[in-house]
């Protein structure tokens, strides 16, 4: 009986402490600590990525509607080729462990699998439009968020708080409002030949995107952005070339090349190249999950552009959806996540140079910091001793002051 009473008292005390701690957090909440320049910069950069995705959607829409060109592998091949020419060449010019030969010797198969995952993620989502509707693609594409959070929790050791799950739910509510607006506007485009296959392709694409983004976050935060883009560009170029020849040879051979077609292909390739080049920077500042939450607004930007370019019908729910998603993204950005694989400030400075710190460098850096700390303590002790000696001299002078003045006066009188 006494044991039950003690347990009840313990539970009441624990609940009271939790409620008190929550009230203290609310009282200590400062908007300036949340809505700062860092938050504004990350939000602006992530929405810039969403605008780039909007650019790829518009160019693909023009190629499909005006010129009847559906070649997703050719478009991906152009992007990967630009990445290979730029970043793989940079790896060739590096020396030591950062050289491309050393990277290929140690971990070539990892980047081969990563390149395959990235290529198939881009291909399967485009292929899904041939079998299912736009509404299904928009809804099921959000499956990338829970998969990303699960993989980040397992692989990157990321730990989320209750506010992060709430932010994800808010963003998904915004996506739901966008889908409802599409249905009310009768913009449920796409095919219904095989809805089950199309939905499966969307889910597969979302899973592959999640795997690619988690690997990208790990590589960018522990190695370098140039290594990730250079190796993915190299292997993805090879894979997309083979897949394009096998699957799209007939479509590519019948393209009637005009300057408009070339301009649209160039615009698509530049948008994708800029997206791939800038996305690691935003992921390094935040996380892959927060970046993908921000990219949910890309469909809305495409809709707003389509109202002028393709005469889409407007709905007030589009604005409501945009505001709700932005609120969810800001809520997710406001509270940072913790990860066990993010290095300290000393190791991150080495990673910014383009390589991973080894054990010798970490030990040497720690020894240097310890020596500097010991020197600072020795200097502080010496200064304290000098101050004490100076204080003792002043005290002696003060004590001997009246006697010394008396003797001086006597000597002057004599």
Write up what this structure looks like:
The protein has 414 residues and is mostly helical. Helices cover 81% and strands 1% of the residues. The protein contains 17 helices and two strands. It has helices at 2-27, 31-34, 37-65, 72-93, 100-128, 134-140, 144-154, 162-184, 195-222, 225-247, 249-253, 259-285, 288-294, 298-309, 316-334, 345-352, 359-413; strands spanning 158-159, 338-339. Strands 1-2 form a two-stranded antiparallel ribbon. Helix 4 runs antiparallel to helix 5. The longest helix is centred in the last third of the chain and has 55 residues, at 359-413. The termini are far apart. The model is unreliable at 343-364 and 398-414 (pLDDT under 50).
Q: What keyword list fits this structure?
A:
disordered C terminus; 2 strands; 414 residues; 17 helices; mainly alpha
SSE layout and pairings?
Blueprint: H1 2-27, H2 31-34, H3 37-65, H4 72-93, H5 100-128, H6 134-140, H7 144-154, E1 158-159, H8 162-184, H9 195-222, H10 225-247, H11 249-253, H12 259-285, H13 288-294, H14 298-309, H15 316-334, E2 338-339, H16 345-352, H17 359-413
Antiparallel strand pairs: 1-2
